[in-house]
Automatic annotation (TrEMBL):
Protein name: Flavonol synthase
Organism: Flavilitoribacter nigricans (strain ATCC 23147 / DSM 23189 / NBRC 102662 / NCIMB 1420 / SS-2) (Lewinella nigricans)
Record domain Fe2OG dioxygenase: where: 170-276
Keywords: Iron, Metal-binding, Oxidoreductase
InterPro entries, alphabetized: DIOX_N (IPR026992), IPNS-like_FE2OG_OXY (IPR044861), IPNS-like_sf (IPR027443), Oxoglu/Fe-dep_dioxygenase_dom (IPR005123)
Length: 317
């Protein structure tokens, strides 16, 4: 049996456990985020039936003809809603586009909400009417699981359990359905997703339809992440690393191409990028700065940081 590359924790010990179980969960999650930046989570509360439904709806969307899919690529939204066609996004340090296309679903608020002008409407697909609605249901489930994980991290950082609550309520999170088509010829230099770090606070990822996800260890090795059944992989994003002055690790990861004999197999992956509201202050926490750990980052808001990074990866012009 393959040795696990990342620790595994049980979220129900935090949400429904006694004081001792909650404390043990907080310690295990904090240690994982500090040392490796990744953790597997079971009993996360996101229904498998909902995940399966969205996988099915996603496959149906990506199977549509190219000209139909492109109708749902909305100019001026920097890929934040609807379809983004193959070859548009690249890693920050790379000029070569990743071998993928994707569809994004974002925050929905009521028409009379003060934040309404901040969040564009989600894109609904006429040929697949249940796709976006199922995605919105999954989005809400991920929001719930993610908020519990951030409550545990806030306790670990001695900030009080509710530190992130108002910052992520109606936040700028994104559910992304990523399709990596079959590889039909020798790629020039790109892999399915070049090495990168995520922009947000934390990412929640359900198991992909095929392998390929790898993380770069502090020992300088690439290791495969193979989640078990009904397990979500969580990783720290750059915003949380920045807030904690590198105490919590935003670990480099990538999606490699399969062996040549599996080039004909597509890959479908569904990450949820948990973002705060744009005005969240990402200035380093005072408790994370001392003589040994001087401040590594200038103050910035989450919105300005996201804007900067979207330009770096080619989604925003």
């Amino acid at each position: 049996m393959q040795k696990r590359a990342i620790p595994l924790v049980d979220l129900s010990k935090f949400t429904h456990g006694n004081a001792e179980e909650r404390a043990a969960f907080v310690e295990a999650l904090g240690e994982a985020f500090h040392t490796i930046g990744f953790v597997g989570v079971k009993n996360h509360g996101v229904p498998q039936s909902l995940i399966d439904r969205f996988y099915s709806e996603s496959k149906a969307f990506f199977a549509l003809p190219e000209d139909v899919k492109r109708r749902y690529e909305i100019e001026g939204l920097a890929g934040q809603r609807g379809f983004t066609s193959f070859g548009k996004e690249h890693a920050k340090q790379s000029e070569v586009a990743d071998l993928k296309e994707f569809f994004q679903i974002g925050q929905e608020v009521k028409v009379d909400d003060a934040l309404k002008d901040r969040y564009p409407d989600n894109v609904h697909v006429a040929e697949n009417p249940d796709f976006t609605q199922t995605g919105i249901e999954l989005y809400r489930a991920f929001e719930g699981a993610g908020s519990e994980l951030l409550r545990a991290i806030a306790i670990h950082l001695d900030l009080g359990a509710d530190y992130f609550d108002d910052k992520i309520e109606k936040g700028n999170s994104i559910l992304r359905s990523i399709f990596y088509p079959p590889i039909t010829r020798e790629p020039a230099s790109a892999i399915r997703a070049e090495q990168h770090e995520d922009i947000n606070l934390i990412t929640l990822l359900v198991g992909a339809s095929a392998g390929g996800l790898q993380l770069f260890t502090k020992e300088g090795e690439w290791v495969d992440i193979v989640p078990g059944d009904d397990e979500i992989v969580i990783n720290v994003g750059d915003m949380l690393q920045r807030l904690t002055n590198n105490y919590l690790k935003s670990t480099t990861h990538r999606v490699v191409n399969p062996p040549r004999e599996d080039w004909h197999l597509p890959r479908l992956s569904i990450p949820f990028f948990l973002h705060p509201k744009s005005e969240m202050d990402l200035t380093i926490l005072d408790k994370c700065v001392d003589e040994e750990h001087p401040a590594a980052y200038e103050p910035i808001t989450a919105g300005d940081y996201l804007d900067e990074r979207l330009r770096e990866i080619g989604l925003k012009k």
